[in-house]
C-alpha cells in the first residue's frame, strides 16, 4: 500500500517536476504552471522507502499535477486509484482534477477516474505561418511610477482584489514584463509578456486586458500582435490562454495569429 508525505519544500521532487513538464505535448499554461500549482499542497508518494512520484492538490480538493517516476510508470493507474481511496484526513475531500489535453498520461488517468468533465480554458500557440502586418500600435513599458494607475485600471476592468493585483503587477513591472496602451494619458489596455524562470523557458505567456469602455474595437488583437513581436525580439515563443466561455477573447486571440491546440479540462466526481 502506498503512503504519502506532505512536502514543505519541492527540492526532493525537482527531477520529477522537470520530467512532468517535458512529457507535455505542448507548452503548459503559464498561470497554472507558475501560479496555481506552486500554491497547491504537494505530496510525495512512497512504497516502503521508494519514492514513486508526487501529486498536488489545491485548497478546493482538485488534483493539479500527478506524476510517477519512469521506473514505476506501469503502476501509475493503480497508484492513482489507491490515492482516491486513501483514508487520511490530510488530503480532505477529493472533488476532481484540472488537467490539460497536453498532459496525456495524467489526462488519461482523469478520464478513467472521474465521472464528468467540462472545458475550463483554451490553450493557444502562435501560428508560425502568420506574418504580422503593419497595423501595429505603440505600447509603453510600465515602470513603478505607473503602479497605482495600472492597479486601479485592472481592478476596474476585471474586478480582481486590489491587494493581490498590487503584488502581481508590481512583480511584472520589476521584471519589465508589463505594457500599456495609453491614449490621452489614460490606460485603455494592458499587455503582459511573461517569461518562465524554471520550466519551458523558451516561451513567453501573453495576456491582455482592455478597458470595459473600449472593448469590441480591435484593441485586444492589436495589443497581442505587438506582444508577439516583443516576445520574438526576445527570442521567445508566444503562448496564451483564455476561459472557455470568453468568446470575445477567443476571437481576438485567433485574429492575432494564434490557434487553440489544447484545452484545460475540469474533471469532477
Q: What is the CATH superfamily label of the largest domain?
A: Gcn5-related N-acetyltransferase (GNAT)
Strand order of the largest sheet: 1-2-3-4-5-12-6-11-10-9-8-7
Annotation, overall tally of beta strands: 12
Question: What's the number of structural domains?
Answer: 2
CATH topology of the largest domain: Aminopeptidase
Strand count, sense and barrel status of the largest sheet are: 12 strands, mixed
Please tell me what the overall shape is.
elongated
C-alpha termini separation: 23 Å
Describe the protein in words.
- This protein is α+β, with helices and mostly antiparallel strands and 269 residues long.
- It folds into two domains: 3-114, Aminopeptidase (3-Layer(aba) Sandwich), CATH 3.40.630; 125-261, Gcn5-related N-acetyltransferase (GNAT) (Aminopeptidase), CATH 3.40.630.
- Helix content is 33%, strand content 32%.
- The chain is built from eight helices and twelve strands.
- It has helices spanning 14-23, 30-39, 76-84, 104-113, 147-158, 162-174, 219-233, 247-255, and strands spanning 3-6, 41-47, 50-57, 62-68, 96-100, 116-126, 140-141, 178-183, 186-195, 203-210, 237-243, 258-268.
- Strands 1-2-3-4-5-12-6-11-10-9-8-7 form a twelve-stranded mixed sheet, with helices on both faces.
- Helix 7 links the parallel strand 10 and strand 11.
- Helix 5 (147-158) crosses helix 6 (162-174).
- The protein is elongated.
- It starts with a strand and ends with a strand.
- The mean pLDDT is 94.
Amino acid at each position: 500500500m502506498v503512503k504519502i508525505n506532505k512536502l514543505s519544500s519541492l527540492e526532493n521532487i525537482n527531477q520529477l517536476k522537470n520530467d512532468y513538464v517535458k512529457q507535455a505535448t505542448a507548452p503548459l499554461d503559464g498561470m497554472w504552471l507558475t501560479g496555481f500549482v506552486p500554491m497547491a499542497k504537494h505530496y510525495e508518494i512512497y512504497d516502503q522507502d521508494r519514492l514513486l512520484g508526487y501529486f498536488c492538490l489545491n485548497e478546493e480538493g482538485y488534483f493539479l499535477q500527478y506524476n510517477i517516476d519512469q521506473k514505476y510508470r506501469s503502476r501509475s493507474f493503480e497508484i492513482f486509484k489507491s490515492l482516491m481511496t486513501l483514508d487520511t484526513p490530510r488530503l480532505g475531500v477529493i472533488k476532481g482534477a484540472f488537467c490539460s489535453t497536453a498532459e496525456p498520461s495524467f489526462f488519461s488517468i482523469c478520464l478513467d477516474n472521474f465521472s464528468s468533465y467540462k472545458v475550463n480554458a483554451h490553450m493557444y500557440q502562435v501560428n508560425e505561418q502568420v506574418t504580422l502586418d503593419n497595423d501595429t500600435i505603440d505600447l509603453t513599458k510600465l515602470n513603478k511610477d505607473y503602479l497605482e494607475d495600472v492597479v486601479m485600471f485592472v481592478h476596474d476592468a476585471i474586478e480582481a482584489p486590489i491587494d493581490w493585483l498590487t503584488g502581481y503587477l508590481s512583480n511584472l513591472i520589476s521584471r519589465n514584463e508589463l505594457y500599456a496602451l495609453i491614449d490621452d494619458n489614460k490606460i485603455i489596455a494592458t499587455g503582459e509578456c511573461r517569461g518562465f524562470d524554471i520550466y519551458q523557458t523558451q516561451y513567453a505567456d501573453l495576456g491582455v486586458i482592455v478597458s470595459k469602455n473600449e472593448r469590441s474595437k480591435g484593441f485586444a488583437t492589436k495589443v497581442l500582435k505587438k506582444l508577439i513581436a516583443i516576445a520574438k525580439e526576445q527570442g521567445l515563443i508566444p503562448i496564451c490562454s483564455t476561459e472557455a466561455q470568453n468568446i470575445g477573447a477567443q476571437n481576438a486571440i485567433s485574429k492575432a495569429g494564434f490557434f487553440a491546440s489544447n484545452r484545460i479540462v475540469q474533471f469532477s466526481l
